[in-house]
């Protein structure tokens, strides 16, 4: 289970990916999206109805809580406990509806992404201007599903600072950090999109996300770092954030390259970003002024031990 952030709100949702056994035609994709939109509209109406119904109980809890500061009678305490129990059940019901709605939203996103990958594989890759690309990367980070754990629930891999499992294979369309070598022989970590993983060679094919480069790279798994699939909620799962002072790799703002940086400040809310200091010898202390980078683009530093392509 995980949460999804939508229009500034953060909720739990199922992270199971949309599974397609056959490529979708444009018409099939449209019909599936329409079906989910209809279900989503119904769920949104149910959520609003449930929320309005719960308001009465919440108002009663607030009123009796205020009264209890003066009235310590057992009868009032018993009534308060009853209202709290009702409120808890109401919240569980509302949360369940929200999870269902957000699962529909994620389904729609997965269907659209599947169509985009199909178009790319068919040679119909769209050209995106650099300014638009930067905006898309920002939106992608802001709308990354948000994980909010239940008490005792284990934080999954690829949530915040939690790395991928050692056996994990990134899927086509996933964003990764890729260590590539330029024509001059210089190695850089770039933002890339997975085209495919070839199990017979244990290598990835990835595309440079920067349209100006138009490069495809074939790289071993050790040269690939999957990016987080979920954000960690600082208010409930702070242990899934990099501690202050940690050396990381972070995407430098308005670029598609990762550089070493130090965590200067952690996000305090679900919508905030890390404040980092990039290594930069042009500054007297060797670090850039504080810059903000989203959780999606902050990953553990990876030591290169005889990396091979």
What would your notes on this structure say?
This protein has 309 residues and is an alpha+beta fold. The chain has a domain at 26-124. It contains three helices and 14 strands. Strands 4, 5, 6, 7, 8, 10, 11, 12, 13 and 14 form a ten-stranded antiparallel beta sheet that branches. The chain has a two-stranded antiparallel ribbon with strand order 1-2. The chain is globular, with a radius of gyration of 23 Å. Residues 166-307 form the SGF29 C-terminal domain. It holds the Pfam family SGF29_Tudor. This is SGF29 C-terminal domain-containing protein. InterPro entries: SGF29, SGF29_tudor-like_dom, Tudor_SGF29_rpt1, Tudor_SGF29_rpt2.
Search tags:
10-stranded antiparallel sheet; transcription; two-stranded antiparallel ribbon; 34% helix; 309 residues; alpha+beta
What's the short story on this structure?
The protein has helices spanning 26-68, 74-121, 130-142, and strands at residues 2-6, 9-13, 146-147, 175-181, 187-198, 203-208, 216-220, 224-226, 231-232, 247-251, 257-265, 274-278, 291-293, 298-300. The protein is an alpha+beta fold and 309 residues long.
């Amino acid at each position: 289970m995980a949460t999804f952030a939508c229009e500034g709100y953060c909720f739990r949702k199922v992270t199971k990916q949309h599974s397609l056994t056959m490529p979708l035609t444009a018409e099939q994709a449209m019909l599936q999206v329409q079906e989910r939109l209809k279900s989503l509209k119904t769920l949104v109406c149910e959520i609003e109805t449930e929320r309005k119904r719960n308001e009465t109980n919440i108002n009663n809890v607030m009123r009796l809580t205020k009264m209890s500061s003066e009235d310590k009678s057992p009868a009032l305490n018993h009534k308060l406990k009853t209202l709290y129990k009702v409120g808890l059940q109401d919240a569980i019901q509302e949360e369940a509806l929200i999870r269902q709605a957000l699962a529909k939203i994620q389904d729609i996103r997965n269907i659209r992404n599947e169509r985009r990958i199909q178009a790319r594989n068919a040679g119909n890759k769209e050209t995106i201007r650099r300014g638009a690309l930067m905006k898309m990367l920002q939106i992608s980070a802001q709308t990354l599903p948000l994980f909010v754990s239940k008490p005792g629930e284990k934080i999954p891999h690829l949530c915040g600072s939690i790395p991928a499992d050692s056996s994990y294979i990134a899927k086509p369309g996933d964003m990764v950090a890729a260590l590539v070598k330029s024509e001059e022989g210089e190695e850089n970590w770039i933002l890339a999109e997975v085209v495919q993983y070839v199990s017979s060679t244990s290598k990835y094919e990835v595309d440079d996300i920067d349209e100006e480069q138009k490069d495809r790279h074939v790289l071993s798994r050790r040269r690939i770092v999957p990016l987080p699939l979920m954000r960690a909620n600082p208010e409930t799962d702070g242990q899934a954030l990099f501690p202050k002072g940690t050396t990381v790799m972070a995407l430098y703002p308005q670029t598609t390259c990762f550089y070493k940086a130090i965590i200067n400040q952690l996000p305090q809310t679900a919508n905030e970003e890390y404040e980092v200091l990039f290594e930069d010898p042009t500054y007297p202390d060797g670090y850039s002024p504080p810059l903000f980078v989203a959780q999606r683009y902050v990953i553990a530093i990876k030591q290169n031990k005889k990396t091979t392509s």
